[in-house]
UniProtKB/TrEMBL annotation:
It is found in: Periplasm. Keywords: Cell membrane, Lipoprotein, Membrane, Palmitate, Periplasm, Plasmid, Signal. Gene3D superfamilies: Periplasmic binding protein-like II (3.40.190.10). This is Sugar ABC transporter substrate-binding protein. It comes from Shinella sedimenti. Belongs to the bacterial solute-binding protein 1 family. It comes from the Bacteria. PANTHER family: ARABINOSE-BINDING PROTEIN-RELATED (PTHR43649), POLYGALACTURONAN_RHAMNOGALACTURONAN-BINDING PROTEIN YTCQ (PTHR43649:SF33). The keyword Protein biosynthesis does not apply.
Length: 417
């Protein structure tokens, strides 16, 4: 049983301290939650705590979460959160419980909070309060079909220009396969687009103003929007990770620029295990500056069951659980997991896993967590970024027109503080 046994010191940790209580968990239906919830009966057996789960697609999950938190309801005890997205907003609203004391005073002997990525812990800390516990390390990576590249006489892409040239060649010789797929859904675009922007030397803000219309910003919008319009799947403006992973897994896309967290989903069924390579997005003028973020588990400040909720957070983010999930392609925020013999054996079973692990190392060492604007209204800023890129993707505006409209709106958001 996972985490079976308790501390044997005088201050023994008791996993049954909240037996009979019910904790409500609002989950984003992504690979992390799907994997961890497959073990939820073990959590109940270990603690005696009943787990009530509500799971939604990402946008619906966020809509429900904000509605509940904004009403000061105690309906939700634990929820998934992205500190890089809504962290400042939720912290300013007082919606997060401070988890700092729990990590020091209410943990089993196996927990090892110090082993969690210090960078991700720092990213989840606002005004000295720890708002969530990191669950994974992720960022968008380029999945590509080695067999299709070989068929079309293409080498491994080494630059953003190579990616576009490969898409053009695959369109000519790929037999109807979609050359390139990435996010086109407006609220989801910033996650993948930010990597392109940073590789090209851009940033979102300069001297307190929006810089989306900088030369680097315009070049990034043109690269992304034109590539998706000319070489992306039909209906690309509606694509997020669900559609991208399904398209690539089924063999209908030659390249997919999508989350490292999607390895598990993309490899489902095993058809892509032997024909896929995974690399960080190839370099632009500024080199390779991958996006690196992580989901976290937070406890609502409105929860009436914070202590019991912490038991679920601790269990779900434990070394043992994170090792289990790593074996399913969910990268752990604990460096120690990569040293586990079982994990090393899993990595060695397929070249794509070893390449994925190498790419994760680049995310961890060189990554940027700037996804959208570093302001309280970060979630809203992402919509304007997405709108600008989508305008170009759909051919509705020129790059200059699209980014000028976005810059104007974004300067208003920045001034709002």
């Amino acid at each position: 049983m996972l985490l079976a046994g308790t501390a044997t010191s005088a201050l023994a940790f008791d996993w049954k301290a909240h037996e009979g209580e019910t904790v409500s968990f609002l989950a984003n239906n992504n690979p992390w939650s799907q994997a961890v919830l497959s073990y939820k009966d073990e959590f109940t057996a270990l603690t005696g705590i009943n787990l009530k789960v509500d799971s939604y697609q990402e946008q619906q999950m966020r809509q429900r979460l904000v509605t509940v938190l904004n009403s000061s309801s105690d309906e939700i005890d634990v929820f998934m959160t992205l500190a890089s997205r809504e962290g400042q907003q939720f912290a300013a609203s007082g919606w997060y419980a401070d988890l700092s004391a729990y990590t020091q005073d209410a943990v089993g002997p196996e927990y090892d909070f110090a082993g969690v990525s210090p960078a991700l812990v720092k990213a989840a800390t606002f005004d000295g309060k720890l708002t969530s516990i990191p669950l994974n390390l992720e960022g968008p990576l380029l999945y590509y079909r080695v067999d299709v590249f070989e068929k079309c006489g293409l080498a491994k892409p080494a630059s953003l220009d190579d990616v576009r040239a490969a898409a053009e060649k695959i369109k000519e010789c790929g037999g109807g396969i979609t050359p390139f797929a990435s996010r086109g859904l407006k609220p989801a675009i910033a996650y993948t687009f930010s990597n392109v922007l940073h590789n090209m030397g851009g940033t979102y803000m300069v001297d307190g103003k929006s810089a989306l219309c900088s030369p680097a910003g315009q070049k990034a919008i043109a690269w992304y929007g034109d590539l998706m319009r000319e070489y992306g799947p039909p209906g690309a403006a509606n694509y997020s990770f669900y559609q991208i992973s399904a398209l690539y897994r089924s063999g209908r896309a030659a390249m997919a620029f999508e989350s490292s967290n999607e390895l598990r989903t993309i490899m489902e069924g095993g058809e892509r295990l032997n024909d896929t390579d995974v690399v960080p997005l190839p370099a632009g003028e500024a080199g390779t500056v991958p996006t690196a973020i992580g989901w976290g588990l937070a406890i609502s400040s409105r929860s009436a069951k914070k202590d019991a909720a912490w038991y679920f957070v601790q269990w779900a983010s434990s070394p043992e659980m994170q090792k289990r999930l790593a074996l399913q392609g969910v990268a752990s925020p604990r460096a120690s997991v990569a040293e586990e013999e079982e994990y090393k054996a899993w990595i060695a079973e397929a070249p794509v896993r070893a390449n994925w692990q190498t790419a994760l190392g680049v995310l961890a060492s060189d990554g940027s967590s700037e996804v959208g604007y570093p302001i309280i209204a970060n979630p809203e800023s992402r919509d304007y970024i997405g709108q600008a890129v989508q305008d170009v993707l759909l051919g509705q505006r020129s790059v200059a027109e699209a980014c000028a409209a976005a810059d104007s709106a974004l300067d208003g958001l920045i001034a709002r503080k």
